[in-house]
Please model this.
Amino acid sequence: MRAEQLQRIINQSTGEREVAQFLALHPEIVRYSVTKTAGHSAYVLKEFPFGSHYKADLVVLTSYSGVWEVHLIELEPPDDMVVTKDDIPSNRLNKALTQLNDWKDYIDKNRIQFRCDLTTWCMSRDLLKWIKGNHIPSNNTGDLLNSPDTMIKCFYYVFIGNREKISKDARRRMNLLSNYPIQILTYGRFLDVAKNFDEFDADNSKNVLLTKSEE
Model:
């Protein structure tokens, strides 16, 4: 069962490497953890490099109605405190937020190069493999991912901490620190989606909402 395995990793890990390996084997969990629509095309990338200094742990792409969404994810340890006793962000969370803002600044200034890099990786290193054939990513309306005329919306996430060990006040602080298009989430989001998939696998005749989450 996906959820049992992921729960064990979250509870026992002192770093993000093991959970990153699990998610790379189950990219469908990553996809539905950050997207809300079915879309026309979907891709999941691992350790995607862009610019000369940046690398996203995971990237999810999906397209719909002439728009591409790009969700860039930074993974931090599941055992991080997230918010200190003094109600301030942990050192790791502060660094992660700074990094996401750097990503955003780079992408805003280098959108054409970013599109081209994404296109190359989607064609060669997609983990989902829902799209057959080695062709430029496109949706049903013919909007190519690498076209300067295609609308792209970027969203940024840091996943950090164990939801079961974080107080309501700390989660409230996390929500206050989130600033669109940047969002802070615990690993509970991945766990919820894993449980949704387990429920669907147990009875695929049920109408299971895969994106359902407490986060």
Remarks:
- Residues 39-187 form one domain.
- Residues 17 and 66 are 35 Å apart (CA to CA).
